[in-house]
Write a structure and sequence with these properties.
about 180 residues, mainly alpha, Cytochrome Bc1 Complex, Chain D, domain 2, 2 domains, about 40% helix, elongated, binds heme C
């Protein structure tokens, strides 16, 4: 077979392919001018979700109410709180005189002034600007939503949302003390 014949065969194959694919397109072009096609909207319907205004961190979570947690503290479990503390251990020690990790040691944190662990030199300006001690309410509000409670702080943690877990955590943190603070009424 010389190259002239090969070219002819190849040309025939390409022509056949063009017809095969081209008729579909041609049909679309013809139908596309019909009335039905005009009524149908071109393109795909994309699922649209409301876009939060820039700067906001998504939709606002349900408002946190300490009043719902306070009564739970009487029956909350420090043992469960220790388990709920697992993700915190990456950054916090809890033993008396324990060292700082990424975050400060938390022994005696209930009732301690915010940003006052002597062994932690890296408190943020946001933390240093806080006044007064860690009350149960302040702790719960902070641990529920660290970024929202003290904007600009450097604790990279999303927050514990469950009231039951928060109550357990609070009584666990309270237990880390020589003289545990009285529970709120
Ligand atoms: C990724 C590391 C990280 C994780 C995880 C983390 N923390 Fe923190 N935490 C920090 C840092 C850093 C600070 C200091 C924040 C600042 O100075 O802005 C802090 C501060 C605190 C404070 C205030 C201490 C003080 O001396 O004023 C408390 C209380 C606290 N964390 C509790 C928790 C609890 C409870 C959890 C788990 C539910 C947790 N943290 C998880 C890093 C972390």
């Amino acid at each position: 077979m010389d190259s002239w014949i090969i070219n002819k065969v190849a040309g025939a194959v390409i022509a056949a392919l063009l017809v095969a694919f081209g008729t579909g397109t041609l049909a679309e072009i013809l139908v596309g001018h019909g009335d039905a096609a005009k009524k149908a909207k071109p393109g795909y319907a994309l699922p649209m979700t409301a876009v939060a205004p820039s700067g906001a961190a998504g939709p606002a979570p349900a408002a946190f109410k300490f009043a719902e947690i306070a009564p739970m503290l009487k029956t909350a479990s420090a043992e469960n709180g220790q388990a709920a503390f697992a993700p915190c251990r990456a950054c916090h020690t809890v033993d008396k005189g324990g060292k700082s990790l990424v975050g400060p040691n938390l022994y005696g944190v209930v009732g301690r002034d915010v940003a006052s662990s002597a062994s932690f030199p890296r408190y943020s300006a946001a933390f240093k600007g806080q006044k007064g001690p860690w009350t149960f309410e302040k702790l719960a509000t902070f641990i529920n939503n660290p970024r929202g409670a003290i904007p600009g702080n450097q604790m990279a943690f999303a927050g514990i949302k469950s009231n039951a877990d928060l109550a357990d955590l609070l009584v666990y943190l309270r237990s880390l003390s020589d003289t545990p603070a009285p529970l709120p009424n």
